[in-house]
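Design a sequence for this backbone.
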């Protein structure tokens, strides 16, 4: 009987210790991030839309957050107030990156909602280059810089 009690205690301790470790899908998440160089938070630096250079007003920022399956970008002013945003799923096939915004807000959101936008992409060091065409035909050339943890 004593051996049974010791075995039961050992099993309970083993179960508690096992549950204290990272979830089983944690290695899969790390693996997906290692394979997908786009996963992270990016800040838009230079951009061209329709061949014209674009610059935000002083103090305004645009960030893009990319997970293994979805993207989201947001534009906000110097006080942190967001005034444009969009997000949804994306796909990667070789150097082809396609976004399909499903949710968002802002003056231009209705023009991009539910449409697939195709781009060529590459990561060069801490820069993510995204070039292509929006579904409506506007060409874009964007360079995003990886946001480092502070």
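Sequence:
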């Amino acid at each position: 009987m004593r051996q049974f009690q010791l075995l039961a205690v050992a099993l309970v301790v083993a179960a508690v210790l096992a549950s204290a470790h990272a979830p089983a899908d944690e290695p899969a998440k790390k693996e997906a991030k290692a394979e997908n160089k786009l996963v992270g938070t990016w800040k838009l630096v230079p951009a061209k839309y329709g061949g014209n250079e674009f610059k935000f007003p002083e103090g305004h920022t645009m960030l893009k957050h990319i997970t293994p399956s979805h993207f989201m970008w947001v534009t906000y002013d110097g006080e942190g107030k967001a005034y444009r945003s969009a997000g949804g799923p994306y796909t990667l096939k070789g150097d082809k990156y396609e976004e399909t915004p499903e949710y968002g807000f802002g003056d231009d959101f209705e023009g991009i909602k539910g449409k697939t936008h195709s781009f060529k992409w590459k990561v060069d060091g801490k820069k993510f280059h995204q070039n292509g065409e929006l579904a409506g035909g506007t060409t874009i050339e964007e360079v995003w810089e990886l946001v480092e943890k502070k």
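The chain has two domains: 1-29, 36-146.
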